[in-house]
Design brief:
CATH architecture of the largest domain: Alpha-Beta Complex
CATH topology of the largest domain: 2-enoyl-CoA Hydratase, Chain A, domain 1
Largest sheet: 6 strands, antiparallel
Order of helices and strands: HHHHEHEEHEEHEEEEHEHEEEHEEEEH
Number of helices: 11
CATH class of the largest domain: Alpha Beta
Number of domains: 3
Number of strands: 17
Structural class: alpha+beta
CATH superfamily of the largest domain: 2-enoyl-CoA Hydratase, Chain A, domain 1
């Protein structure tokens, strides 16, 4: 088994290089321009000639016999990895398993994993989920999954493994702040509440755990009843909430803000314009907590609240990737998943870069009186301070 892995590693590296040589002119748009220019066409075919030459050398000269299917699979994996952190190429034999994993989402593991710069990276950790219970943190780099190095593990395979049967224990090794940490992930069946409301120091704090369809109804109930009704102030905690359904983010924002939401844009073209469909059911002062694990639907929600309700963002920068996934079935029966459209805010900001907070909070910003606070608690205390400053300014203005 080790021998096959080493052979595949070398083969994949060489073949991905060949693929880059072929795809570079396509990615830069030179293939389109080649229709009108013979020079570009000649260049493309020269690059394609190099591609076939590299393939021939690998097949004829590599230290071990190579499997053509594995070479192409490695090349396709590498190509998808280069598109965006959520893109993946799924071989035909594994399409069914991956579709099942997508349907489950983070339900079994409580983790959203992407592949960024060649590494499997934990973006989101669902509060109270198996991943959180095992000790995972947003930002962990997974170096081993199920006892195997992840250097060659495609994204689809990692997600399938993390969507295994409840009760399965998956050993995972992560790199965290330069240290190796060994964890045991016991897969479960996460069916908890999407929202958790608590009162801290007299301030309502609403923790969102996922953006799934049931969340909107729960949010509307909380906003109109109990501790939130008539308070006029709220802290929304969106830290480490990754993935989710963008349509749920729009529907949730519709409960809190009015106006134009922006649009979904594909290759520079608007495919859907978005706006509120009903009057907001709650109005007041808002502070939103974010960090690097805030990705997808939570980023959209945060941007809309800042743009349309003057919400203050406190904490850290978001991940910077909010769009809808496209899926294409290929001629060989495999499937390709990639970002098909991005969310664009009412200000024209394409959400493919990190959203910066209004107040950045790091461990280095602690005062002496805050030395014993964890970073999570420090962010919360600063958010409460921002909320009270807003209230004091309003009273002074009145």
């Amino acid at each position: 088994m080790a021998r096959r892995s080493n052979s595949f590693a070398g083969s994949r590296a060489l073949f991905v290089l060949a693929t880059v040589l072929v795809l570079a002119p396509i990615a830069s748009g030179s293939l389109t321009r080649a229709i009108a220019g013979a020079d570009e066409t000649d260049s493309f075919y020269r690059e394609f000639s190099v591609f076939t030459e590299v393939l021939k050398q690998i097949r004829d000269r590599y230290v071990e016999e190579t499997d053509l299917d594995r070479l192409f699979s490695g090349a396709f994996d590498g190509t998808a990895d280069g598109l965006d952190p959520l893109a993946t190429y799924v071989p035909e034999a594994n399409v069914g398993r991956y579709r099942e994993a997508l349907a489950l989402g983070a339900r079994r593991s409580g983790l959203l994993v992407v592949r960024e710069r060649g590494f499997l990276y934990v973006v989101g950790v669902t509060p109270g989920g198996p991943g959180a219970d095992a000790g995972f943190e947003s930002g962990d780099i997974i170096s081993k999954l199920g006892g195997r190095s992840t250097r060659l593990t495609p994204l689809w395979e990692a997600r399938v493994l993390l969507a295994g049967e409840p009760g399965t224990v998956v050993p995972v090794q992560v790199l965290r702040q330069g240290q190796t940490v060994d964890l045991e992930l016991s897969l479960g069946d996460l069916t908890g509440e999407e929202l958790d409301l608590r009162i801290h120091d007299g301030v309502p704090i609403l923790r969102v755990s996922q953006f799934e369809p049931g969340m909107v109804e729960s949010l509307e109930t909380l906003l109109s009843l109990g501790d939130l009704a008539g308070t006029g102030r709220l802290i929304l905690d969106l830290r480490s909430i990754a993935g989710g359904d963008l349509s749920v983010a729009f529907a949730a924002a519709d409960l809190l803000v009015d106006g134009e939401f922006g649009e979904l844009r594909e290759r520079g073209e608007t495919i859907e314009r978005l706006a509120s469909r009903r009057p907001a059911v709650w109005r007041g002062r808002l502070v939103v907590l974010t960090n690097r694990g805030s990705q997808g639907a939570s980023e959209v929600f945060a941007v809309l609240l800042r743009r349309l309700a003057a919400a203050q963002l406190v904490g850290g920068s978001t991940f910077g990737h909010a769009g809808n996934t496209a899926q294409r079935t290929l001629s060989n029966g495999a499937e390709l998943y990639f970002t098909g459209s991005f969310f664009v805010s009412p200000d024209g900001e394409v959400l493919n870069e990190a959203v910066e907070p209004d107040l950045r909070v790091t461990g280095a910003t602690r005062s002496l009186s805050e030395a014993d606070l964890s970073l999570d608690d420090l962010v919360l205390e600063r958010a409460i301070g921002v909320l009270r400053e807003l209230e004091a300014e309003e009273k002074k203005a009145a």
